[in-house]
Amino acid sequence: MQSLMEDLMDPAAFPDTTECIKLVQTHISMVYIGDSFVYKIKKPVNFGFLDFSSLEKRHYYCQQELNLNKRLAKTLYLDVLPVVFDGEKHKISLTGKNGDIVDYAVRMKKISERMLMKSLYERNELTAKHLEDLAHLLHQFHTTAMHSSEIAEFGKPDMFRINTDENFVQTQKYIDITINEKDFKSIKRWTDHFYLNNRETFFTRIKNNKIRDCHGDLHMEHISLEDPIAIFDCIEFNDRFRYTDTLADIAFLLMDLEYRNGKSFSDALWRYYSRISNDKEIALLTFYKVYRAYVRGKVISFQIDDPQISAEKKEDATQTAKRYFMLAKSYTTI
After folding, report:
1. 129 and 106 in one domain?
2. Is the pLDDT assigned to residue 308 strictly greater than 80?
3. What is the rounded CA–CA span in Å between residue 248 and residue 201?
4. Which residues are bridge partners to 244 per DSSP?
5. Which one of 34, 124, 214, 221 is CB 3.0 to 4.6 Å from 249, fit for a cystine?
6. Segment 109-168, tens digit of pLDDT
7. Bridge-based pairing state of the strands 223-224 and 22-25
8. To the nearest whole percent, how much of the chain has pLDDT over 70?
9. Phi then psi for 260, rounded to 5 degrees?
10. SS3 sequence, the chain?
């Protein structure tokens, strides 16, 4: 992995002409950013809810990523290309014939970081028009996304509880590192009570066809507000995280705005979306905000265990995860 990572820092390792390469890592991916294109390679990891441990699985999920993201970012996602090793160096090939295939990369067009929702917000350039257009796009997506009896099963409280129970199991190791024990127990208790007191709400949502094949990772860094709006990087690695209530989808974005002290923007986006969709389930929306904030805290906590991430970045991850967990706790007191 280290050899591959280093070899792909050479611009000559890529099939397109590029002068420099920037590497961005997450707990599951290595993203190589060139002048015009971006190449995303999945790390050979297995977190239980995600399994990229074999070459065959990484190839399959690269294809899934390509196909699923064409729903909301049709022109951004181009193809899946093999990563080959010719005996000396790793490179990304158009054909896979000039070496042994050792991995795969999703190739995308490079987007303008200046037009990401996060960037516009940070420059105080996010407008009501942006939010209204985004609300219309999300409503259109949520009303046309695939739904079926199989997908609907994932809206049942006992099925969704698999997600929240998994969160609590996987974050126990981070107690008193990124989340204190008191908040851990309090959020878990609040979640248990919500399931107990709101079972019928989940079944009503199923009856009203609100459980769809959604995006699953809808936050500000995954939205380009260029014309047309593109929403990318959906969850491809586990159907359970995409087959969900449309409220759980938009709750992620609302939570992300609130994490960044953008409560007024979150309120405005929710007003536009709820008016268009006629969705008024505030209690359930809060439940999903708790879930989404907790997931972000968990996922960012995973970076602490990544040996390829520097000590400085691990400390940044620790502080960021703490803030997400504190946000999750704050929702339980509303």
Report:
1. no
2. no
3. 14
4. 212
5. 214
6. 999 999 999 999 999 999 999 999 999 999 999 999 999 999 999 999 999 999 999 999
7. unpaired
8. 99
9. -95, 20
10. CHHHHHHCCCHHHCCCCCCCCEEEECCCEEEEECCCEEEEEECCCECCCCECCCHHHHHHHHHHHHHHHCCCCCCCEEEEEEEEECCCCEEECCCCCCCEEEEEEEEEECCCHHHEHHHHHHCCCCCHHHHHHHHHHHHHHHHHCCCCHHHHHHHCHHHHHHHHHHHHHHHHHHECCCECHHHHHHHHHHHHHHHHHCHHHHHHHHHCCCEEECCCCCCHHHEECCCCCEECCCCCCCHHHHEEEHHHHHHHHHHHHHHCCCHHHHHHHHHHHHHHHCCCCHHHHHHHHHHHHHHHHHHHHHHHHCCCCCHHHHHHHHHHHHHHHHHHHHHCCC
Query: How close are the terminal C-alpha atoms of the chain, in Å?
Result: 46
Q: pLDDT by residue (tens digit) across 52-70?
A: 999 999 999 999 999 999 9
Binned at pLDDT 50, 70 and 90, residue 306 comes out as confident
Domain limits at 170?
Answer: 115-331
- Quick one: CA torsion of 326, 49, 192, 281, rounded to 10 degrees? 80
CB of 4 within 8 A of CB of 90?
yes
For 320-334, how does the pLDDT look when each residue is reduced to its tens digit (9 = 90+)? 999 999 999 999 997
Q: Return the axis-axis angle of helices 282-302 and 246-259, rounded to nearest 10°.
A: 70
**Could you tell me which residues are beta bridge partners of residue 103?**
83
13/125 same-domain check: no
In this predicted structure, what is the pLDDT of residue 35?
A: 94
User: Could you tell me the CATH number of the domain that includes residue 175?
Assistant: 3.90.1200
Would you tell me the crossing angle of helices 128-144 and 246-259 to the nearest 10 degrees? 160
Q: Which of 79, 110, 141 is the last residue of a domain?
A: 110
Residues 106 and 132 in one domain: no
